[in-house]
Amino acid sequence: MTHKPLKRYLPILQWAQSYNRQALSGDLLAAVIVTFMLIPQSLAYALLAGLPPEAGLYASIAPILLYAIFGTSRALAVGPVAVVSLMTAVALQAVAEQGSMGYAVAALTLAGLSGVMLLAMGFLKLGFMANFLSHPVIAGFITASGILIAASQIKHILGVDAGGHTLPELVVSLSEHLDQTNLITLGIGVVAMGFLFWVRKGLKPLLRHFGLGPRPADMITKAGPVAAVVVTTVVVWGLGLDAQGVNIVGAVPQGLPPFTLPSFSPDLIRLLILPACLISIIGFVESISVAQTLAAKKRDRIDPDQELIGLGAANIGAAFSGGFPVTGGFSRSVVNFDAGAETAAAGAFTAVGLCIAALALTPLIYFLPVATLSATIIVAVLSLVDFSILKRSWLYSKADFIAVTATILFTLGMGVETGVSVGVVLSIVLHLYRSSRPHIAEVGLVPGTQHFRNINRHKVLTDPSLVTIRIDESLYFANARFLEDYIYDRLASDPAIRNVVFMCSAVNEIDLSALESLEAINQRLQDMGIKLHLSEVKGPVMDRLERTHFLDAMTGQVFLSQYDAWIRLAPVPNEVQMPEVGVSSIN
Amino acid sequence: MTHKPLKRYLPILQWAQSYNRQALSGDLLAAVIVTFMLIPQSLAYALLAGLPPEAGLYASIAPILLYAIFGTSRALAVGPVAVVSLMTAVALQAVAEQGSMGYAVAALTLAGLSGVMLLAMGFLKLGFMANFLSHPVIAGFITASGILIAASQIKHILGVDAGGHTLPELVVSLSEHLDQTNLITLGIGVVAMGFLFWVRKGLKPLLRHFGLGPRPADMITKAGPVAAVVVTTVVVWGLGLDAQGVNIVGAVPQGLPPFTLPSFSPDLIRLLILPACLISIIGFVESISVAQTLAAKKRDRIDPDQELIGLGAANIGAAFSGGFPVTGGFSRSVVNFDAGAETAAAGAFTAVGLCIAALALTPLIYFLPVATLSATIIVAVLSLVDFSILKRSWLYSKADFIAVTATILFTLGMGVETGVSVGVVLSIVLHLYRSSRPHIAEVGLVPGTQHFRNINRHKVLTDPSLVTIRIDESLYFANARFLEDYIYDRLASDPAIRNVVFMCSAVNEIDLSALESLEAINQRLQDMGIKLHLSEVKGPVMDRLERTHFLDAMTGQVFLSQYDAWIRLAPVPNEVQMPEVGVSSIN
Fold first, then answer.
1. Which of B392, B576, B585 is the closest to A560 by Cβ?
2. Residue-wise pLDDT tens digits, B249-302
3. Do the Cβ atoms of B488 and A515 come within 8 Å?
4. How many CB atoms lie within 10 A of CB B377?
5. For a disulfide at A319, which of A243, A262, B208, B586, Cβ 3.0-4.6 Å?
6. Same domain for A503 and A450
7. How far is B471 from chain A (nearest CA, A)?
8. Is A432 in contact with B435 (Cβ distance < 8 A)?
9. Does residue B77 form part of some domain?
């Protein structure tokens, strides 16, 4: 890595020099398909973020180009995504009035802050931080966010002016405005939703039935939102439904993304710093998950720290070109990959396609009903809603279940920022709690082997004067005292004991607190006339212990293997059977 | 435990029924000695907490009695201690003016809140929470607190009116008031300090030299503060030095502890809740450390959860009898133990002694100079200051070093509450960071054994088609992705590999995130034509895996021991030598 710093920071140099005609044709086809998919999506997510529709197009152009230069994934499609757009709306409504100039500037600032944070995390190699979002917490958060996003769009389907950022707020506000429902809007929204659901579930089997291959069938179904946009726009225009109270997108400026400046006001930055941090982490996690999944299919490797730099550049690009926070989107990246994108050039071509749309197509969407965009969002996010994680975690691990349940409930009840924070903190606390009460097993020799297992689970040989304790956790401050308590309790009940062996095969670290506990145990055992030994101490742990006086003070020995300890310390080693080749496994 | 609930919650029932004359004489002697030691200490710590001197006596009476009923330690002496008194002063000065009625009520409220928290933690069995204060953080905190406490007392030695709660504040304030120094006060303070230091360092060898036994010599040196109090009081009274500007204790009410009520004001409680929480935890940690050390000497066991109840009762007692937060003190508990205290009755007798003092002795301390009390505090706390933890942690573990250094710097620079919070949070963050990048070793067979060790550290047998990875950490969300990255990198460079074994001897837990990573690894290895096996999976981990579909989907097997895996998977098992008895250990 270090000998080619430029290529490390500019992945484009890696693929550009071997670019050929075959890659070009794959990339061009993928770009055309993704462009058609991205136009309604980007308009819709701008709406979700509370911004004018053109912001969605702008947020898809410069960011895609910058990611193509700095990102490591060849298939990732960067732009506005549902969850980040919702988080953007939540963050912005705390600092500015929706529709005001301040709101748009705050969106640029949020993207800029997020970009700077992602870049900083990338240069500091902090990509591992994303790992503290556990899979169940992410799953719970995505599910709850999907519900929140869908609920937030119902007002556009009804054509009413409701609000709220949590499920209870949304439900109350919607029920208060239910009597103002515009029935024509509702009709358009419901039909569009029904059509889009049918496209997802029913169209593909139908196309296959008519002899289309699986990939073309898949591509056509992805064009469903475009069809819905075209048809509903034509209907509203033809029947003049905007005069009947149907909300339409209206005038969208025609042109390339403008050059914009985010605000550098310290007050605004202070208000946005925490949301920007959460958006960065959530966006990064979503993006890296997709990128790694797709890279794995082609045996590519993703560099998480370089991905941070790619996404950081993309967000800074959004800040200076009229956009809002962006990240790698799941569905469009999969489409890009399936359509045959070979390199990040596919993204660059998509950006060109969106530029054409911004220049030429915007007058055509004047009569596009907002309800259609909301229908697109609802159908897209409801596919994210998946409660199976609740059952799966309940069966496998109660701690994961608690974390995922709390994440879902807090996200729905208190909003996205609280929800994800509670999930992260709770999973860390539960992890610490479990590791503070480690599993400790007393072990004996499995007859006919050199292998030692739990005396409560296996038929093993033991010796009354020898207690072997296998500690199933690293020893650190949170569990150091637990070991002391355990060993004193064990010894108090048994006067025959002369030797204690701590089998350290699972001890990956002994911190200073734990070392002091070991010293105390050694001292106390010495007072009782019992020797303390260690076995199977790992290399790194042993290196550290050798820098202390503990090994000199220790009454017993350090054995390379537990079997060595048994041979030396068990008084009747001759009764132990010799191991035989071919011992069968337990499974 | 559950079959004798009353004895569990009332440890007094355990020792009271076997109480005899021998225990009585030991307890009485210890009580007399501790009473003499506690009188100046309790006056001094009341001063440190910013309260009138009698509060120190009151805080030593009801709490001792209640602890004798509910506590499990037979030697712990409960009452005001230095660090908790300093934390009390910091907490109270944020809510009330020192010397006001509100200040004293806030002290009662703080004790009451702390008592309720300790009781709640005891009933909820949350004693393990104290384990999250690592030994180095405690050592750093105690050292820094000792410096802060000593610095806070210099104003009394100088006889000036300085203030501040951090070292920079104290230094600035003292230097501003240096010109107002009362030279007579300074003389008394310096002589008293010199005398007390000499008593600690020089008197005991002298007494031993004159033929006194070690224990009587020790007891007499502990009476040093009493001698300093008597002599300086007589000098001030005889020479009328109070008229020369020497601050004296003055009139102290004569009588038993009053019945007092803490405040139930929600505003006050909200302000004090965080300090009360920190005081509870710090007090508990200090107390349990002493209690366990002393119990270990007599092979007694301390029940941490019952200790919480004992200390909780003691603090609630303080709240209703004119005291302030208390805990088990280190030096007086050691004196109590050394003087021969057999049961908690020694504490009860100490309470009687303090009642007599409160009734009869208070007029005698009218002329006691405040500088003497401050000298007592300074000499006591400077013995707590010990920077050796810095060197020890530097040599052993950089993470511990960072935590202890931060604790010391933040305690000195930002105060006790910030200091201890930073220490706890930092040690948890560093622990998580380390466990998120686990040690992973590729292992091979140690010739002539069934034992497997790191190929980079030991001469071992390996096979080109078989890669065995020993994972030296539990697999959980923070490191799940790290394992994926590691294994994909390892396999990408080596096309000969046909079998991968994860040796799980150090894996104590596999959470749902890690299970999903294992599923992903299994799938990807299958695509590459490589089988995934597990070996030495622990009982509890195996139980959980069996509740999932992972074992069905896994391409390989689960082996009881790594040696079984080697026998089955290495193509040339015949070349492996048979183990011999008496393999020597590495140390």
1. B585
2. 888 888 888 888 898 888 899 899 999 999 999 899 889 888 877 876 776 777
3. no
4. 25
5. A262
6. yes
7. 9
8. no
9. yes
Q: Do residues B444 and B377 both lie within one domain?
A: no
- Are B157 and B174 a contacting pair, CB within 8 Å? no
* SS3 assignment, position B148: helix
Chain A residues whose beta carbon lies within 8 Å of the beta carbon of residue B438: 508
State pTM to two decimals.
0.76
Q: What is the total count of domains within chain B?
A: 2
Q: What mean pLDDT is predicted for residues B209-218?
A: 80
Length of chain B equals 587
| B482–A565 CB contact, under 8 Å | no
Say which of B435, B439, B557 has its CB closest to residue A585.
Answer: B557
Partners of residue B429 in chain A, C-beta under 8 Å: none
A414, burial (CB in 10 Å: exposed 0-12, middle 13-18, buried 19+): middle
Q: Is B154 within a domain?
A: no
Alpha carbon distance B102, B108 (integer Å):
10
Mean pLDDT (chain A, rounded): 86
Select from A427, A450, A465 the last residue of a domain: A427
Cβ–Cβ < 8 Å for A478, B131: yes
Which of A399, A427, A455 is where one domain is finished? Answer: A427
Classify residue A580: in a domain, yes or no.
no
Q: What is the CATH number for B487? A: 3.30.750.24
**Residue B205 and residue B127 in one domain:** yes
Given A128, A136, A515, which is nearest B437 (Cβ)? A128
Query: Which residue range is the domain that position A456 belongs to?
Result: 440-575
Question: Whole-angstrom Cα distance, residue A55 to residue B217?
Answer: 84
Q: In terms of domains, do B343 and B253 share one?
A: yes
Model pLDDT for residues A162-214, shown as the tens digit of each residue: 888 899 999 999 999 999 999 999 999 999 999 999 988 888 888 888 888 87
3-state class (DSSP) for residue A500 = strand
**Residue among A505, A513, A582 whose CB faces B136 most closely:** A513
- Domain membership flag for residue B471: yes
